[in-house]
Design brief:
Length: 192
């Protein structure tokens, strides 16, 4: 009998909206794909999504085309107005709420934790965010003096410079700390 090799499900859905912060999208995509972690770029609008600084990305799929949501992790880059577009998208909000309720992981950088705050998912959570966006983090305790944080199944980071740290933390969840550390060291990360 012949065995049929099935394609494994994509592990990470990275959501983009017009005006996203390019560093916060490209860094986790590159780090995770270097580790062999499958990342799908999902647009809430058009296939071609232009970042806050005019750099276009091509999405793999549109949110409207996602039929089987089997991702282990959702990643939300920040940026303005990108984070506001993500926060105001009803279908994305419903998907995130279901994902978190089912025990799924979510990582949000910069202003993007506002998406979770708006959905009431930051109640009694410790997080970090970009300075000036604290008012959108309803119910959260906002930490200072650190650039990323993990609380429950929620990973947050505070901006573009923390993109590598966020990617590392996502990799730790999906592959374990030792493989993530090895990849970080190969990439010349020196903050251990």
């Amino acid at each position: 009998m012949l065995e049929c090799n099935s394609i494994p499900p994509v592990e990470v859905a990275l959501f983009l909206a017009e005006g996203f912060e390019e560093i916060e999208a490209s860094t986790p995509i590159c780090f995770l794909r270097h580790m062999g972690i499958s990342v799908q770029i999902v647009s809430i609008g058009e296939k071609r999504v232009v970042g806050a600084h005019g750099i276009p990305f091509e999405a793999d799929i549109l949110l409207d085309e996602v039929t089987d949501f089997a991702y282990k992790m959702i990643v939300l880059p920040g940026g303005v107005p990108g984070a506001f577009h993500l926060a105001s998208h009803p279908a994305l909000g419903q998907l995130i709420t279901r994902h978190v309720a089912a025990g799924g992981w979510i990582a949000a950088n910069c202003a993007a934790p506002m998406v979770l705050g708006q959905l009431g998912l930051l109640q009694n959570r410790r997080i970090v965010c970009y300075p000036g966006f604290e008012e959108y983090m309803k119910g959260a305790t906002i930490l200072s003096g650190c650039s990323s944080c993990v609380d429950g199944h929620i990973i947050t980071a505070n901006g573009p410079a923390s993109s590598m740290e966020l990617a590392y933390r996502v990799a730790c969840v999906l592959r374990g700390e030792e493989p993530a550390r090895q990849m970080a060291e190969m990439m010349m990360v020196n903050w251990f």
